[in-house]
Amino acid sequence: MNEFVLPQYQIGTRLQPQKTLFTFVRDQALATLACCRSLLVVLLLLALAGCASQKSGGPYQLDETLKANGKNSRIDIIVLHYTASTKPSALLTLTNREVSAHYVVSDDSKPVVYKLVDENLSAWHAGESSWYGRTFINPRSIGIEIVHPGWARNSSGDAGPLFPAPQIDAVITLTREVAKRHGVAPENIVGHSDVAPLRKQDPGPAFPWKKLAQAGVGRWFDEAAADKYQAEYVRYGPPDAGWFQKQLKRVGYSVPESNYFDANTLHTIAAFQMHYRPELVNSKPDAQTAARLRALPTNGSGL
Predict the structure, then answer these.
(1) CA-CA distance, 195 to 156, in Å (whole number)?
(2) Has residue 289 got a pLDDT over 70?
(3) Please, are residues 205 and 157 in contact by the beta-carbon 8 Å criterion?
(4) Phi, psi (5° rounding) for residue 152?
């Protein structure tokens, strides 16, 4: 039988010279079969995935094939602490007692970040606490402990030992990553003293909150506005107790509205100063403290 020889080119297909019709049809059939096999594999994988997301057992079948759009992270606060101890002592305490944190940042020359609690779980780090009216914040917060010897309250303006620069760089990076994962707002990146001002003073006045805010982590006040307000208060006198209490509450602190400078209010002023006027923590409602409080935005950062 004579063979019919196709030309070298055919519409949409380039053939090798002198390829026979029989060879061409055979090659096309094999290619089609290979495509069908690949498609069959994909369909089987999809079917298996569907089966895997529909789990049965007991009195019901669990179907995980649908996902809701209306959701967010349970985390909306990050609390920074200092350990007031050495690294070995801190790790021993945080892993063997009924207190914990999600992360510990060491003070080594190249800091080590220890992850002690998964972010999906609550760590026992904040205790009795409040921020913007939200109380007992452990279930909604991430706790980060920073190895540091601590600070003793004093009237001389001594802020205590500095935090090493590499450690602060590690804290900035870690906190930024956690905030991005959970969508934590700048005003909700706080110290333990902010959420528990009657009990706590960490991470203390040596902690460089302004440096964090300049790196996009946390909140700071509008410095130009604060200078203007301070000149006003120096001239006319600082506001009264009721004003301080309302303003502290506006920016997140839990404080009684007693209209006088009670012990709770003075402790809260000291907590504010540790964060935003660390050069002098004295609990006094002076002109500079009032100016910085007024210049602090309710949401976001003033930088």
Answers:
(1) 25
(2) yes
(3) no
(4) -105, 125
